Amino acid sequence: MSTATARALEHPRLEEIRLEAVLHALSDPMRLQVVRFLADLGEGREAACSAIELAVSKSTTTHHFRVLREAGVINQVYRGTAKMNALRRHDLDTLFPGLLGTVLDAEAAQRRRTG
């Protein structure tokens, strides 16, 4: 992995992204909520962490974003004082064709089923 500086965040390169890490990242309901939010924004769109409301503490929210970033699910960059997030959909679809779409479809079906 690349070296992180004070304002740069470490992300796995494409060849470093592992299926088991992605599945682990997607297995948590809060992290899946973040992924759903970013997927609904559309390809290449970004959102600040503060725009994605999670019903957990700030430190827990930070943990969830870190798990997603370290698994290669999201890309995070600083823009001024905001940490911006974008889904690495193209990378995930390249490595694991259909996985993200299937997970998001299953999550939507579960939400409809459970209200």
From TrEMBL:
Entry keyword Transcription: yes
A Pfam family reported for this protein in Swiss-Prot or TrEMBL: HTH_20
Domain HTH arsR-type: 11-107
Molecular functions per Gene Ontology: DNA binding; DNA-binding transcription factor activity
SUPFAM superfamilies named among the record's database cross-references: Winged helix' DNA-binding domain
Coiled coil: none
Keyword Transcription set for record: yes
PROSITE patterns: HTH_ARSR_2
Protein keywords: DNA-binding, Transcription, Transcription regulation
Protein name, as recorded: Transcriptional regulator
Organism: Planobispora takensis
Lineage, top ranks: Bacteria, Bacillati, Actinomycetota, Actinomycetes, Streptosporangiales
